[in-house]
Amino acid sequence: MAYQAEYMWIDGSEPTREIRGKTRILADGATPGIWGYDGSSTNQATGDNSDVVLNPVFQCPDPIRGGDNILVLCETLLTEDLSPHPTNTRAAAAAALEKYADQEPIFGLEQEYTLINPSTGWPAGFPPNGFPAPQGPYYCGVGALKIHGRDLIELHTQACIDAGLAISGTNAEVMPGQWEFQIGPVDTVTVGDHLWVARYLLYRLAEDFEVEVSIEAKPMKGDWNGAGMHTNFSTKAMRESYDPIIAACEAMGTEDAVARHLAGYGTGIEDRLTGAHETQRFDQFSYGVSDRGASIRIPWQVARDGKGYIEDRRPNANADPYVVSELLTSTICAALA
Ligand code: ADP
Ligand code: MN
Ligand code: MN
Ligand code: MN
Question: Which of 35, 120, 146, 298 has the most CB atoms lying inside 10 A of its own CB?
Answer without folding.
Answer: 298
